[in-house]
Each structure stands twice: as structure tokens, then as C-alpha cells.
Amino acid sequence: MYKPRAWIINIGNELLIGRIINTNASWIARELTLRGVDVKRIVVVGDDIAEIVGVLRDAIGNADIVVTTGGLGPTDDDKTMEAVAVAVNRPLTLNPDAYRMVREFYESQGYSLTHERLKMALLPAGAKALPNPVGAAPGAYLVEKGTHIFVLPGVPREMEAMFKYVLEKLKPLLPQLCVVEKGILITGMPESSLAPLLKKASRECLDCYVKSHPKGHELEKPVVEVKVLASAEECSKAEAKAEKVLEKLRSLLEGANVKVEEIAH
Amino acid sequence: MYKPRAWIINIGNELLIGRIINTNASWIARELTLRGVDVKRIVVVGDDIAEIVGVLRDAIGNADIVVTTGGLGPTDDDKTMEAVAVAVNRPLTLNPDAYRMVREFYESQGYSLTHERLKMALLPAGAKALPNPVGAAPGAYLVEKGTHIFVLPGVPREMEAMFKYVLEKLKPLLPQLCVVEKGILITGMPESSLAPLLKKASRECLDCYVKSHPKGHELEKPVVEVKVLASAEECSKAEAKAEKVLEKLRSLLEGANVKVEEIAH
């Protein structure tokens, strides 16, 4: 079953100094995963051109889809567009669409176009500008060596509002897959005792992703969440694949002194 | 001013499918940053040996300190120790200290040592076992080509409880630096208008890290947080460096119709 591979690159010193929790990464990862994309890597780098270029080039060589966040603002340390241009060996140019977006954004409120504001209309040559419905900085979309690159802002509200354009552009690439996640919560058995049962149950669906997450203390208060992520062309089939693993696990747990609960989604 | 460089590597499919927000990364990043470490990169990879080995080797070539989280549990998809062993070309061996820790953990509660439990006592040859005061799986500490590698569990409560051992081992490596962060909140000026003033103010401290974070809407409700991270051998000097940048910024903002507030820490 073909799944496009994605890398998520989050750019910003504020992430590296731990001032901000990277909620953008998990939000994007979830959106892509549930649409049949295989997120292979998430990388956080600072606002440093060499660092950004290095990871972008790695990503272009390894992923079908790259989504970056951050570094699109008007300040000097917002360097992402410049780094993208370097990474794909293209000049940074004034993009006519991005220029119109930035100009309209500011002029409609009576602000003139300064050097700092114009900076946000500079995109790598050949990139398409992505509108920002809730902020100033447009995003960018470009294809390099077959890799689809989306450059989005770091402010979560703006990034999320622009993600519809990502999905629009990706539509022809996305597999016709329904991805579902089902889980159970098992109370009363240490994860280490559950492990061999889980291994057996996992064999019921070789292309499912089965994982246990300890929630309590291994021995004193063992609570383990088991999640199964399954995909198929039809949702009912994906459901059935996940259910098969959980059913097997339930049957293996029969007789053990444990409580098994469904996890609601 | 010498600052050791660190990479944080978070391992787990659950992070790549967006089921979990990576709070471990920001927690560790904060701890290291405030002790004078320069966190250069955060990478999230799945429970896949080739992926983990790839990023570990990158890290060993680029960082003085590597902290990994996740993949130490008893289940089959917990592959981190094996990957670390491969990355440093050492065999995975039963570590006597780790064996004692795991055995004591289970036997004290009347549990026997199964294959899955013994797995948690397998460490790369030459690694030191790090005790886990709140869980089953020990961590590991090893030095490879001058890079200090710490392998910690992914459960935040366990990882945080074990971080004291990381700091203990790192002590000789940490610079005698006091790192402080100071910030102001500016209401009433778009980030794009603030940008040139910020650039000027930043020149007051070339080794400070100065960053603006838009909090509201660029034009309709402009609120920008400016943070300055400064370090020096003495805290008072670090404070003074940060304050110099903010003072300059305040003076440049004089006369503008803005509200400037201190940010408490």
C-alpha cells in the first residue's frame, strides 16, 4: 500500500531553548497521518540558514512531502524563505502574488510597504504563494526533485488556517485510504507481561501500527493503553483490521485478572 | 564563550502520528539551555533501527551532548538500545548494573524475570546504567568519539526523574555560565514596524538571543512579546546584558503610541 513519506521541519530558536512546546509538529503529523501519509521525521532547527538548508536538503532526498513552519515574519531573524531558496538553488525573488497579498494586507489598514513588510513577499523563484487568511506573511509551495515543499508560518493560528491549501495541493498525491485508530485501556497487568500477548495479537494485522503506552506505574498501578492504527481503502475494512488485533488481544487476556475498557475517540 | 552543543532525539511512532505532543523535547531543551548548553537540533524518529541509527550518527558527528528519549520498554517495538549499540558499533550486552536494577524492581514485587523484562537490562557494551527511580527500564550513558550520549525513557515522569543523572555526568562539561531571560510585551505596534527598532536594539548585545513573538493580529490587535536570552559568568552581568537591549528598545519606542509591560518569570 503506497503511502507518501513526509518530513516536518519546525524552524525557530524559541523551540530549541524550550520556551515553546512544539504543538505545530503534532498537529501537522496528525492531519497528514489521518490522510494516509507516513510521517517519517520531525526536525526542529534554529533560525540559521546553514542549519535550515542542511535539513531541507536531507528532507528533499528522503521525503515526498516536506512541511516547514516558522521563520516567515518581518524580522531579521526570520530566514526560512532565504534558506529554502538556497536549499533548492533558486534565487529569492519578489513574488507577484505574495506582493499583492502583503500590499493589500497593509494598505487596507492604511499602512505603507516598508522594507520589513516587502521581505515577506520574497519567495524562491517558481514557488506559488499561499494566502494567509489571518496574518501578514504568505506561505509558499514549490516542487523540487519530486518533493512537494510547503512553507508555512509558525504562529499556530495562521499555520492551521493555511493548511487547507496544503491539502488542496496534495490531493492528487494522497492515497485513497481511510485511516482509523482504535484503542483499549488495560488495567492490572504490567506492560512487560502484556508484551508477549501484544506481539501475538499484532500478527493479526501486519500493516497495522500497534503500540502500548504505559500510563501508570509498571507494577504498583499497571495501566497500559494499547492503540492500533489501521488503514484500508474503505473505512469499514480499516476498522475491521484494527478490531481483529484488539479482539485477539482480548481473547489472550481472557482469564487474566485485568480490566479492559474501550477508549473513546 | 564556549557552549557545548546538544541534540535531542525523541524516539517513538506515537510522536510521528501526532498522538502525543513532544513535551519531553521542550523540557530537556529548557533544562540544558538554562545551564549554558546550546541546543542545536531536536529530531523525532520512529521506532525503526535504521532511522534511529542514522540520526544518532549525525548527532555524534555534530554535537557534544546527545539526549534520547523513548523506546526503552519491554515491548518488541522498543528498539532504542539496540539502535544505539549499532550506531556506536558495539555489541548489546547484559549490563550487570542494569540487570540488578531490573531484577530488584520486579523481584521486590514478587515478579519473575521474563525475556521481556531482561531485555531492559541489555545495554551497549561500555555504557553505564542510569537508575530509573520511578519505573522499570534503566537508562544508559556512554561516550562515543567525545560525544556524551544519554539514553532515557519516554515516559515524562521517568525521564524527568532521571535527568539529575544527566546533569551529574555533564557537570565537568557545563560552562560556568548564568543564563537569564528577560522580556517585555509591546501592545499597539505591528511586528513589522518593530522589526527595525529590534534590529538596532539587538546590537547592544551581540551574543544575546533576541526574538520577537507576535501574540495578536499584526494590524488589528498588534501585541508582540520581545524576549532576550543572555548569559555571562555572573548572573548580574547576564541580567545587565539583557537589560541593555531592552533599555535601548524602550528608548527607541519613546514617543510611539504603545504600551510596554515587563514580563514576569
Automatic annotation (TrEMBL), chains A, B:
Residue intervals of the MoaB/Mog domain? 7-174
Question: Which InterPro entries does the entry link to?
Answer: CinA (IPR050101), MoaB/Mog-like_dom_sf (IPR036425), MoaB/Mog_dom (IPR001453)
- Write down the SMART domains for this protein, in alphabetical order: MoCF_biosynth
Name it.
Conserved archaeal protein
Organism the protein comes from? Hyperthermus butylicus (strain DSM 5456 / JCM 9403 / PLM1-5)
